[in-house]
Specification:
282 residues, mainly alpha, 0% strand, elongated, Odorant receptor
């Protein structure tokens, strides 16, 4: 496997406490805190309905963001509860790749590993840019005032997401902002880890199917290029058998991932559609 892809894959999951290997008490505590942080932020968004007059615009504004937060919570807990599946898939993939002996097959899996690495880097850069932009949004008015000498009539301390903490938001602004930043970071690395895992494993599965196709082509080439005899038949049978083996392994690998995450992705798809619909309607 591509070592750089593995490095990005591991870092993205370790940062969110979702790395399936070596789950210490500290990692479990980290996961609990991260999950509690996201859930509490959803609650503090919904409490806005208790102190603000409910209008259609307000409901759409709150729910459109809350559903996205809920999506991240479900994704996070799904990866946490299926850690044993991720660990088994990772070990199986490493074993399959290390078992390849043919230089052309190794070249194929390396090519797909390079693709997986590039996709992982793209997702990482996109996540970093997104977190950076969301981090700047609450303090942009102050930045503009300092560097461009603009007199802003609105208060500096303004957060772009409606929340209700039942405290003086001016006095506890930085604590509220810290909560927002923590949620942004957790959700960012959660989505990054999920995207890198899903696309990476999917790309490697395509590579394994390509290797199966390559083995069948090699078997057919023996049959068409040489005089068919008993020795060649044994060689053809052997190559076809190897092709069937890796094809079966690839199918089992893919089905294992889909079977364990099928319900999660269906739920996430529904929530994402609702979230996008609310954003468009709003």
């Amino acid at each position: 496997m591509d070592t750089q892809f593995l490095y990005i894959h591991r870092i993205s999951l370790v940062a969110s406490g979702l790395w399936p290997c070596n789950r210490t008490m500290l990692v479990q505590f980290q996961s609990f805190v991260f999950s509690l942080t996201m859930i509490s932020f959803i609650i503090f968004q919904l409490t806005t309905f208790l102190t603000t007059e409910c209008t259609l615009d307000l409901i759409i504004e709150i729910l459109s963001i809350s559903f996205f937060q809920l999506l991240c919570v479900i994704a996070y807990n799904s990866f946490w509860s299926n850690a044993h599946v991720l660990e088994r898939l990772l070990k199986n993939l490493q074993y399959i790749c290390s078992d390849l002996k043919d230089k052309n097959e190794i070249a194929i899996i390396k090519r797909y590993g390079h693709i997986a690495k590039c996709v992982a880097i793209a997702f990482t850069l996109l996540t970093i840019c997104g977190i950076f932009i969301l981090t700047l949004l609450p303090i942009l008015p102050r930045i503009f005032d300092i560097f461009f000498l603009v007199n802003v009539s609105e208060p500096y301390r303004n957060i772009y997401i409606r929340t209700e903490y039942f405290v003086d938001e001016e006095e506890y602004f930085y604590f509220i902002l810290l909560h927002l930043y923590a949620v942004t970071y957790i959700e960012g690395v959660t989505l990054l880890g999920g995207a890198v895992t899903m696309t990476g494993y999917g790309i490697y599965s395509c590579g394994l199917f390509n290797i199966a196709s390559y083995r069948i082509e090699q078997a057919i080439r023996i049959n068409s290029d040489e005089v068919t005899n008993r020795k060649n038949k044994r060689e053809i049978d052997k190559k076809i058998s190897h092709a069937v083996d890796i094809h079966r392994t690839s199918v089992e690998y893919t089905e294992c991932y889909l079977y364990n995450f099928n319900g999660t992705y269906c739920m996430l798809t529904v929530i994402l559609v609702i979230c996008l619909s609310l954003h468009l309607f709003g």
